[in-house]
Amino acid sequence: QVQLVESGGGLVQAGGSLRLSCAASGRTSSIYAMGWFRQAPGKEREFVASITWTQLSPGYADSGKGRFTISRDNSKNVVYLQMNRLNAEDTAVYYCAAKRTHLVRYDYWGQGTQVTVSS
Protein backbone atom coordinates (compact mmCIF):
# COMPACT_ATOMS: atom_id res chain seq x y z
CA GLN A 1 0.00 0.00 0.00
CA VAL A 2 0.98 3.58 -0.64
CA GLN A 3 -0.29 6.49 1.38
CA LEU A 4 -0.51 9.97 -0.11
CA VAL A 5 -0.97 13.25 1.75
CA GLU A 6 -1.45 16.53 -0.08
CA SER A 7 -0.78 19.99 1.27
CA GLY A 8 -0.33 23.53 0.04
CA GLY A 9 -3.79 24.44 -1.13
CA GLY A 10 -5.45 27.70 -0.23
CA LEU A 11 -6.89 30.97 -1.47
CA VAL A 12 -4.93 33.00 -3.99
CA GLN A 13 -5.70 35.95 -6.22
CA ALA A 14 -5.84 35.56 -9.96
CA GLY A 15 -2.36 35.80 -11.43
CA GLY A 16 -0.79 34.40 -8.27
CA SER A 17 1.04 31.16 -7.57
CA LEU A 18 0.72 28.14 -5.33
CA ARG A 19 2.84 25.07 -4.79
CA LEU A 20 1.11 21.84 -3.89
CA SER A 21 2.97 19.01 -2.20
CA CYS A 22 2.21 15.31 -2.07
CA ALA A 23 4.10 13.15 0.39
CA ALA A 24 4.20 9.45 -0.42
CA SER A 25 4.81 6.77 2.19
CA GLY A 26 4.53 3.02 2.47
CA ARG A 27 5.59 0.86 -0.47
CA THR A 28 6.98 3.71 -2.55
CA SER A 29 9.23 1.24 -4.36
CA SER A 30 6.10 -0.01 -6.14
CA ILE A 31 5.31 3.39 -7.67
CA TYR A 32 5.65 3.77 -11.43
CA ALA A 33 4.31 7.30 -11.67
CA MET A 34 2.47 9.95 -9.74
CA GLY A 35 -0.03 12.45 -10.94
CA TRP A 36 -2.15 15.41 -10.05
CA PHE A 37 -5.82 15.60 -10.84
CA ARG A 38 -8.46 18.18 -10.05
CA GLN A 39 -12.20 18.35 -9.72
CA ALA A 40 -14.14 21.58 -9.91
CA PRO A 41 -17.71 21.87 -8.58
CA GLY A 42 -20.16 20.22 -10.94
CA LYS A 43 -17.41 18.87 -13.18
CA GLU A 44 -15.69 15.55 -13.60
CA ARG A 45 -12.24 14.94 -12.26
CA GLU A 46 -9.56 15.78 -14.81
CA PHE A 47 -5.89 15.06 -15.29
CA VAL A 48 -3.48 17.90 -14.58
CA ALA A 49 0.07 16.54 -14.65
CA SER A 50 2.13 13.42 -14.04
CA ILE A 51 5.71 12.38 -13.49
CA THR A 52 7.35 8.98 -13.64
CA TRP A 53 8.90 7.93 -10.38
CA THR A 54 12.40 7.02 -11.51
CA GLN A 55 12.92 8.69 -14.87
CA LEU A 56 11.12 11.86 -13.78
CA SER A 57 9.44 12.25 -17.15
CA PRO A 58 6.67 14.85 -16.87
CA GLY A 59 3.38 15.11 -18.69
CA TYR A 60 0.82 17.90 -18.67
CA ALA A 61 -2.74 18.55 -19.65
CA ASP A 62 -3.16 21.41 -22.09
CA SER A 63 -4.75 23.50 -19.35
CA GLY A 64 -1.50 23.61 -17.40
CA LYS A 65 1.17 23.69 -20.08
CA GLY A 66 3.44 26.66 -19.62
CA ARG A 67 1.95 27.47 -16.22
CA PHE A 68 2.30 24.32 -14.11
CA THR A 69 5.45 22.38 -13.30
CA ILE A 70 5.53 18.95 -11.69
CA SER A 71 8.66 17.77 -9.93
CA ARG A 72 9.87 15.27 -7.41
CA ASP A 73 12.19 15.49 -4.42
CA ASN A 74 13.80 12.07 -4.48
CA SER A 75 15.20 12.31 -0.99
CA LYS A 76 11.80 13.06 0.55
CA ASN A 77 9.44 11.05 -1.67
CA VAL A 78 7.52 14.23 -2.27
CA VAL A 79 5.99 15.35 -5.54
CA TYR A 80 5.27 19.02 -6.13
CA LEU A 81 2.96 20.90 -8.44
CA GLN A 82 4.07 24.47 -8.94
CA MET A 83 1.17 26.48 -10.32
CA ASN A 84 1.74 29.95 -11.74
CA ARG A 85 -0.53 32.55 -13.35
CA LEU A 86 -3.56 31.00 -11.72
CA ASN A 87 -7.02 31.96 -12.87
CA ALA A 88 -10.55 31.32 -11.67
CA GLU A 89 -10.84 28.23 -13.89
CA ASP A 90 -8.12 26.59 -11.79
CA THR A 91 -10.37 26.58 -8.74
CA ALA A 92 -10.88 22.96 -7.73
CA VAL A 93 -9.99 20.25 -5.28
CA TYR A 94 -6.60 18.92 -6.31
CA TYR A 95 -5.81 15.26 -5.77
CA CYS A 96 -2.51 13.46 -5.77
CA ALA A 97 -2.45 9.92 -7.13
CA ALA A 98 0.04 7.11 -7.69
CA LYS A 99 0.06 4.12 -9.98
CA ARG A 100 2.06 0.93 -10.10
CA THR A 101 2.17 0.42 -13.86
CA HIS A 102 2.24 2.35 -17.10
CA LEU A 103 -1.48 1.72 -17.54
CA VAL A 104 -3.88 4.61 -17.30
CA ARG A 105 -5.47 3.60 -14.01
CA TYR A 106 -4.16 5.12 -10.79
CA ASP A 107 -4.13 2.83 -7.78
CA TYR A 108 -3.77 5.18 -4.83
CA TRP A 109 -5.32 8.55 -4.09
CA GLY A 110 -4.89 11.29 -1.55
CA GLN A 111 -7.71 13.11 0.21
CA GLY A 112 -7.37 16.26 -1.84
CA THR A 113 -6.55 19.89 -1.14
CA GLN A 114 -8.72 22.87 -2.04
CA VAL A 115 -7.38 25.55 -4.35
CA THR A 116 -9.50 28.67 -4.72
CA VAL A 117 -8.54 31.45 -7.10
CA SER A 118 -10.33 34.75 -6.60
CA SER A 119 -10.82 37.01 -9.57
Structural features, described:
The protein is 0% helix and 54% strand. The chain has no helices and eleven strands. The protein has strands spanning 2-7, 10-13, 18-26, 33-39, 46-52, 58-60, 68-73, 78-83, 92-99, 108-109, 113-118. The strands form two sheets. Strands 2, 4, 5, 6, 9, 10 and 11 form a seven-stranded mixed β-sheet that branches. A four-stranded antiparallel β-sheet has the order 1-3-8-7, with no helix packed on it. A hairpin with an 8-residue loop joins β9 (92-99) and β10. It starts with a strand and ends with a strand.
User: In terms of structural class, how would the helical and strand content be classed?
Assistant: mainly beta
Strand residue percentage: over 45%
What do the pLDDT scores average to? 96
CA-CA gap between termini: 40 Å
Classify the helix fraction into a percent range. under 10%
Number of strands: 11
Radius of gyration: 13 Å
In DSSP terms (H or I, runs of 4 or more residues), the helix count works out at 0
Low-confidence stretches: none
Question: Biggest β-sheet: count, sense, barrel?
Answer: 7 strands, mixed
- The general outline is globular
User: N-to-C SSE series?
Assistant: EEEEEEEEEEE
